[in-house]
Amino acid sequence: MSESFENLWAALAAVGRDPDTGGYRRGGWTPSERAATDWFLDQCAARDLTVETDGIGNTIAWWDPAQAAGDRPGVVTGSHLDSVIDGGAFDGPLGVVSALSAIDLLRAEGFVPSVPIGVGAFVEEEGSRFGMPCLGSRVAAGVIPREKALALTDRTGLTLAEALGRSGIDPAGVGPSPLPAKMGAFVELHVEQGRALTAPVGVASSIWPHGRFRFTFTGEANHAGTTLMEDRHDPMLTYAMTALAANKQARLAGARATFGRLSVEPNGTNAIPSRVIAWLDARAATEDALQSLLGAITRLATERAERDGTTVELVPESVTPIVDFEAGLRDRLVGVLDGAPVLPTGAGHDAGVFSDAGIPTAMLFVRNPTGVSHSPAEYAEMDDCLAGVDALTAVLKDLAR
Ligand code: GLV
Ligand code: MN
Ligand code: MN
Ligand code: MN
Predict the structure, then answer these.
(1) Which residues lie near ion ligand 2 (Cβ < 5 Å)?
(2) What is the pLDDT of residues 11-46, one digit of tens each?
(3) Is the Cβ–Cβ distance between 349 and 125 less than 8 Å?
(4) Where are the domains of the chain?
């Protein structure tokens, strides 16, 4: 089976797209993410790939025409099929569809890899449902204890264990998986998520250290009409001043700070809130810069809370250290691609988890002309996507020859 990239792309893009926003809500194990996964599994079956799925639902589909498998680790490519809330079409799926296309092209030209080539789809990469980015790859690599993973909750209070059960997946199977040991190398192709890449295709040097931090601002609920402004203990005010401070500190440091998620109690128009929970996503070029950014934001939040008569509590939910991709593999890709540009990224990826786990890992980026990502407006030109497929094909051929 072989299908043009354009047709494959159009087919997957139609799965679960919201007709109003043009975006996707493919949180892990939601109907829309399952539909995308089913589409992927159908494509694997149509290509006679050997599908291996681990306990949490990460999949690698192997192409092994020379029956080279045995104990030999393969060359794995691929990415993820889940999305952020109202995400775009490219973040994740571009890597999966490009991987299928690359195998079609290699097959069509009669290439026989000397090691298996695998197409990976790793679950809940965005952490948009359970709050933990790269959940599937982290569990597979044993970076998060299974008990901690299974106890994570979604916004309705459902635990991961319960959600898996409802999807027909036995939570008993969740834990370190046999897949990483079968990955002799991992190359993730991904849409670039800023405007830094001006050539059609580039190679990643590193991923910025980043983290998710939950701030709980607690004050005193009271009447919006009768409580004098000077009598209030308003946690929304403390939060708002913290958000402004975070923005300023990140600008000063050349870093990034975002409050993109908020929970307000009791969330009524005519009541001063009792509590505001706000999630900070912070990223910087170095570990020191990230730590000092977080330190500054926390200090300013605490000072503001004292003035407002509120309290602030900080819980780090996930912290991801810097990832420097293996220089040898990176340079090999650059060589195969005739000197493609090399660039760092502020976005997180399963590739970072696998790199940390000691697997030689690299990333290819496809140009993003607007730099928009994590939005329905995310976009890449078809010609650049096709250049990405060609680049991935050449890289796989080189690594699996
Ligand atoms: C995932 O794409 C992230 O960087 O948040
Ligand atoms: Mn993303
Ligand atoms: Mn992604
Ligand atoms: Mn990502």
Answers:
(1) 91
(2) 999 999 999 999 999 999 999 999 999 999 999 999
(3) yes
(4) 5-208+322-400, 210-320
Q: Please choose, from the candidates 400, 378, 347, the residue with its C-alpha nearest in 3D space to the C-alpha of residue 134.
A: 347
For residue 313 the two structure tokens come to 């509590």
Helix and strand numbers, DSSP H then E, in the chain: 11, 17
Name the architecture of domain 210-320. Answer: 2-Layer Sandwich (3.30)
CA–CA dist 164, 179 (Å, integer): 19
Query: Measured between alpha carbons, how far is 111 from 114 in angstroms, rounded to an integer?
Result: 10
> Residues 306-345: pLDDT tens digits?
999 999 999 999 999 999 999 999 999 999 999 999 999 9
CA separation for the pair 351, 62 (Å, rounded):
18
DSSP string, 181-236: GGEEEEEEEEE-SSS---SSEEEEEEE--EEEEEEEEE---EETTTS-GGG---HH
Backbone angles phi, psi at 201, to 5 degrees: -135, 140
pTM for the model stands at 0.96
What's the ipTM?
Answer: 0.92
Superfamily name and number for 5-208+322-400: Zn peptidases (3.40.630.10)
- Residues paired with 279 in a beta bridge: 214, 261
Q: Name the residue among 79, 80, 83, 44 with its Cα closest to residue 62.
A: 44
Per-residue tokens: 391: 């680049």
Nearest-atom number in ligand 1 for the CA of 210 is: 4
The ligand 1 atom nearest the CA atom of 281: 5
Asked if 191 and 378 count as a contact pair (C-beta separation under 8 A), the reply is yes
Q: Is the CB of 202 under 6 A from ligand 1?
A: no
Cα separations (Å) of 298 from 236, 302, 322, 338? Answer: 16, 6, 21, 46
Neighbours of ion ligand 4 (CB under 5 A): 348-349
Count CA atoms within 13 Å of residue 116 on its CB side: 24
Q: Is 126 in the pocket of ligand 1 (CB under 6 A)?
A: yes
Amino acid (one-letter) located at 226: T
In tens, the pLDDT along 353-398 reads 999 999 999 999 999 999 999 999 999 999 999 999 999 999 999 9
Burial of 279 (0-12, 13-18, 19+ CB in 10 A): middle
